[in-house]
Protein 1
Amino acid sequence: MRANQTKLNVSIITALFVVLFVLMKFLPDSECGFLHYEEVINENGEVEFCATNSAGFIDLIKLDYPVDLSIDWDHLTSDGTIELKMDGGHFLFPHELAFTHTKIMHLLLIDQSLSDYHHVHPKPLGIDKTFSFNFSPKMSGTYTVFVEVVPKRTRRQLIASGKLEINGKSVAQKFSLKTIDLQGDLQFELDGVPNELSVNQDYRFILRVRDSLGIEANLETIMGAKAHMVAFDSEKRGFAHMHPIDDPLSDLKENKDLSFLFNVPRKGWYRIFAQVKRNGKPIYAQFDLKVGA
């Protein structure tokens, strides 16, 4: 009798471990893969499916997402189109994509020198698989392109990447430690940055934005928050898309210094772009950080 009971207990425990193993296999590859268990309504009244504060750098040399990007751009009109195709041959349609930070698609474009960064949101052409966008490059040469989406069916973040060639010669990269940037009448400062960062370590940066009088600048809401930051490595292997640590969907009327988490797995130079909005227009500031061993 005891032997049968022991066998039964072993079978139950084994079954539990099998179930846990299967569940672990289906966990997302990145923090943004987890969706909110409760509905979050953004400023436009849309349900947000994914809005994390991940500090992690997405290295697309090591991470292989099952999606391919087709991108076309007309240098005469500055208009372009995008299509996303899964490995199984299925194209992603607008109704299949969840809202993430108030948009269903985030398109990041960066030139070879890491000096011209664009963050745009392609719009669907009706119910077709094609999305349209407008892009006016300031530089020549090769632009690296990253697309972020979250399909409703899988509820997991997908990253697609590609290249866009702009006629002309590219400019060489130049880096030096930089934590203060002036853009028009605004001064941007990234506080909490050591002279050299370490890999695989979380850092908390504070973004301060002041006007010409040194007074805290009045910032408008952009993508559900007062600011966003994106970091690129010198090799353009990937990026980190950072959002304020505090809930980006709360306290939007308060102007205060914004905190961000930053963590990268490889040493080298990184350029961070902070994006804010004033008078209805986006403003970008840039900072250079060095990561050692």
Protein 2
Amino acid sequence: MLQSLHQIFMSLVPVSFIVFLGWLAGYKKIVDNQHSHTLATYVMSFSFPCALFVLTATSKPKELLNGEFVMAFWLGLVGMFILSFAIYKFLLKRNNRDCAQGAFVCSFPDMAFMGIPIFSALLGKQALLSIAIGNICTSLIIIPIVTIFLSTGNSRESIQKTIRKVISKPLVFAPILGTIYSLLNLQLPEIIKNSLNLIGSTTSGVSLFALGLMMSCFAIRFSKLALMNIALKNIVHPLLMLALVAIFGISGIFAKEAILLCAMPTATMTAMFALKYETLAEESTTSAILGTLISLLTLTIFMIILKV
């Protein structure tokens, strides 16, 4: 238990530090907090797509097509999105933009920023494959769906035109190209890989700094909506994955990886979407910050349950 607490704490400190720097820069007017929108665009249009392309293109086809594990894991991510969307739609009576953004917050785990350091320390580097598989799911299914809803809004733009516009976005077509590249068994040239990694590696720092800038624009509030998001993401999501693991008969390290990834707090990327599309920005940011802090407790509990 002490080791689990130590690893979670060690991953939270750098995250909190960069978010604090962003908040301080905005609060002290060192950086105009309005630039957080520009930074979000940079992350979503440049650095993150490059990182996703390299991640998918360098994965082995047999690893991306790992049968029951992939099916169960993807169903856990997409199923949580559908469940959360339904809660927003039918219980909270929200419009489709709010439903999509809220469901995104409740179903997209922080696999990269928290998952990588924690899994590397506790489960070994081989566990990073599950992070790649999870990111492919969010990249190929959830992110395009969210982008369609947020891009369409209340306009009368045809769904076909919206889909074409969404597919043309780097955040969507980059992992698709990467997956195709991997399935064709092509080798990514080292110079291209290094070039893309150079910009892709900035995703974590820039998005966390932008999140801090966003925080300086308004106070973090314990709203009912934010608390609901955190409960769904940190507690309900891993429980849903626990049930799916049992149904599909998955055991061992793969079962632990799937459940723990779903127990991760919501990804910072969800706040970037909220800012860019001006939808539930305050609630999404609050969910990301408070959810990350609360995960110190919830993650530890699930680690104890799973005997990690």
Protein 3
Amino acid sequence: MDLHLHGKHFLITGGSRGIGRAIALGFAAEGADVSICARDAGAVEETVLAVRAMGVRAFGRALDVADAGALTAFVRDAHATMGRLDGVVANASPMASGRGVEEFDTAYKVDLMHTRAAVEAALPLMEAGGAITAISSISGIEDYGFDGVSYGTMKAALLFYIKSLARHVAARGIRANVVSPGTVLFPGGTWDKVRQEDPDYFQSNVDFNPMGRMGTPEEIANVVVFLSSPKAGFVSGANVVVDGTATIRVQA
């Protein structure tokens, strides 16, 4: 299926590893130019080179997305470099879990407020319309009983923010959606570390899913890329859960 993304430009925060990197490569596979940011300069450069090797343009910068000024400058510079901006994927997350003030503050600044900062910087630059996607989590829609309240609280807040945003920008031809992954396994990621440090807990999470496995970054990226394309032109304000049936709620 041709998603009609050739020559368009998408920006991904936290785009150097895991789900973010897979999203960047997914857009590149569809012929779209890509801009990414992340904290690790070496990982950013490596991903930029991988994207360019796929025959499209790429722009990258190392920064802390909690720094709204640096993030805003990156969005503007990416637009200036590529000459257009067709979509933003707010993917960066510190995975801050806990009940303390520090964990809440970190999750607030990154999971929620970096999304807002990226969106506010991008909206004036999306002259031809486009798509905004926030990466939330199934922890934002169900309480799994572990001490991840700060993470889940901010991921839940994204659902309201994006729903409201979608209605606000619809007349401008801009769509906004949320993608909520379940457990995703990749080298160096959270669940890879759990697998090594607490194999019993890791296996209990695998067994919890009726599919008997965790997802891959590419499986999340495929949904994000499709939602960002004109093929999903009437999808906005949605929360698309990609979890292999791990959640048990009926989504209204």
Protein 4
Amino acid sequence: MTIDSLISQYRLISSFLNDRWPLKNHEHRTFARTMKIMEELGELSDEILTSMNLQRNTKIEKFSRTNIEDEFADVMGSLILLGIELDIDIEKVMQRKIDFTRDRFGMDDEK
């Protein structure tokens, strides 16, 4: 899957969410998307703590690697949805940030 196809699929999800749970305006949608990221990040954090045996035994007993992967995907999906709402060219800005990081640390493109 390419980032372009991922974003295309999330554009469809965004349209569905906006139709299913219409919000008053762009600002409300941006706020809701931001809060969803926080919710999903908390769930990912919870799963990571569980994987480190830093939760109650009932959670530890139910742990699976799939839980971390699913929560990671939820965080990424929520970030993409926010990017769509903010009309960010996600591929472009990610490449810009990668280039900045490589330049900052003197990394070769091949590594």
